[in-house]
Amino acid sequence: MDDKILHLKKEIEEKLSAISELSELEQIRVSYLGKKGSITALLKGMKDLAAEQKKAFGADVNRLKEFAAAQIEAKTAEMKKKQTESEIASMPVFDISTPVSGKMGSYHPITLVQRQCESIFRSMGFTVEDYAEVVTDYECFESVNIPKHHPARDMQDTYYLENGQLLKTQTSAAQNAILRKYGPELIRNGTPIKAIFPGRCFRNEATDACHENTFFQMEGMMVGKDISISNLIYFMKTMLSEVFRKEIKVRLRPGFFPFVEPGFELDISCLICGGEGCPSCKHSGWLELCPCGMIHPNVLREGGVDPDEYTGFAFGLGLTRLAMMKYGIKDIRDLNSGNLRSLCQFTDDE
Ligand code: FA5
Fold this sequence. Notes:
10 strands; about 40% helix; alpha+beta
């Protein structure tokens, strides 16, 4: 082999073993294999050789060229691997056992009372149901004994959608579906229907300290043999004493709702002003919290349950107002405000 070729081979090996930076490799590649590189110059110079020398010299130079390219490629891979390893080694160590400091967030006060109510009713054998927010006129009104043009519709100024559906104004919109879901088991085995169904409601209302256009209710129903007002009062009392865990004044007065007969308004003495009267209770000292009553026979019949055999109660708890009373929130509008400083201060007391 030509001396020049042997010399270049040795030189390449020495240079590659001496480098410390990845960027130096490109300089080496260019200086041997680039347009003006030493190996390229050897190939170009072949045109001046005698024909008998060309073949052997050409083969040697090409072998050198392949050798240089392979060595540079191998060195590049080796250096990249080293670089990655040293980057990993210098990364900060993530210790999963390190305690996380600081507050991670909190539940909205309505979520807190909703969860508390769900757990109270679950412990008394009720199932918790979810229901849609966009419903039909039939679900929200007709199935609960409020036919078209009934004056009771005026009490719930409704947002109608272009497709004829509406944003539910009351959680009572799920009553018919619950009766149809659990009614067959009641009829087959006598298992009473016991369900609660919390949900968001919408009404086109002027807002004030105790009215919002978007608020939460939690409906509850129990249907079976010989269910009476005593059962209703028992469950209402248990729920309120568990939620407030202190003595609160309650009053039950007649109330009209087309889907119950008899119907009641269950009010609690305003906990913001202690019953003295304030904007949160419209200066009456009382807050309408949980209308209720015995389910109207038309509603049971429409849900496939025979009103001559079965009776039941229903209630429509104002969850948003319950959160106000439980946490001493004076203005209902604070609950939809997204103001984290005021909303993050509440905790679950269970
Ligand atoms: C109803 O919506 C009936 N569906 C409740 C019911 C269910 C009665 C089952 C009988 C049997 P009412 O419109 O009064 O009733 O609303 C019920 C509760 O929701 C009120 O007592 C109140 O606590 C809450 N509520 C009603 N409107 C608003 C509002 N605009 N802002 C905040 N809370 C409201």
